[in-house]
Amino acid sequence: MVNKQRFITPLLGPIDFPHLVTRIAQSSHGAFYRHREGRIGRVLRVNEQPRFVEVGLCPLNPSMLAVTVYDGIQADEHEVRQLVSHLFSLETDLLAFYEHSAHDPRLQQLVTRLSGARMLRDADLFSSVISSVISQQINLKFAAELKRRLWCLTGERVLIDGEEFYADPTPGAIAQLSYDQLRQMQYSQRKAEYVIDFARSIESGQIDLGFLANLDDEEFILHLSRARGLGRWTAECVLLFGLGRPDLLPANDVGLQKAVSSVWGIDCRITEKELREKSSAWKPWSSWYTYYLWLSLAKS
DNA sequence: ATCCAGGCTCCTG
DNA sequence: CAGGAGCATGGA
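Structure tokens for the assembled complex are given below, as produced in the milestone run.
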């Protein structure tokens, strides 16, 4: 047993870490993260084992982040770096993205205003699907509450300084729930079925996420949306947040449509078709424009 | 109340 | 195969 394990990890380009901390604290992510003294922490599965991992700015070197893994057996540093890098999208060359935005003054203004913002991704592919299904067609606040309840029920609990945190749930844990258990947590019957049935199809081997993860975007969408309750939007969100693919455009997303309408000063919400046309110039950074546009919706 | 929320299914034409 | 009604639930 080691008490705490510390090391540093690199990132490509700038990061506005204080903004990230604020965003997590004020957003629907708040329940899954601890934020204190300028650092953020949450449970990650490191080689299957739930571990509490904390990240902050490296005081001596602003181009690195400081990582702390809380007590337990010695964790594999390389594995933790991979997880942290994915979670906070540290591998993305943000400056290249900002250069790309120069083709459009409105986009350039948007990314300048949010400079240093990095995507907060899902740590785990399976739970990314579950999160996205939960978020379908309900407001984000309620979605976060439904997610929190499910995590408390099925995720392994980790105690840190007397506070409880939960690991992302496994397919097995969700597969053995009953629809009624989710109904009691205010899931609609359909949402309960989508969530549990998906977990069961993973358990049975009918869907192989490891296989899907290697497909290109369109193939992934086609395969995943064969499952009941998983449509194009959900698959796109999983590609974007779960797999970190850089060029996704959830064109029927209500929030994205509102944000684009707002940035371009269009009175009524633009349609999916109009959005697809407008965004043709966003390649190969569609996910990042989408993410920045989503951020622009939050009260600044 | 009424409308809407970071959709999906299923049924029409 | 494109379009749209119907759906289920809580929040503002």
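Residues 4-91 of chain A form a domain with the TATA-Binding Protein fold (CATH 3.30.310.20). Residues 137-139, 141-142, 145, 186-191 of chain A lie near DNA strand C (CB under 10 Å from a C1'). Further analysis is deferred to the final report.
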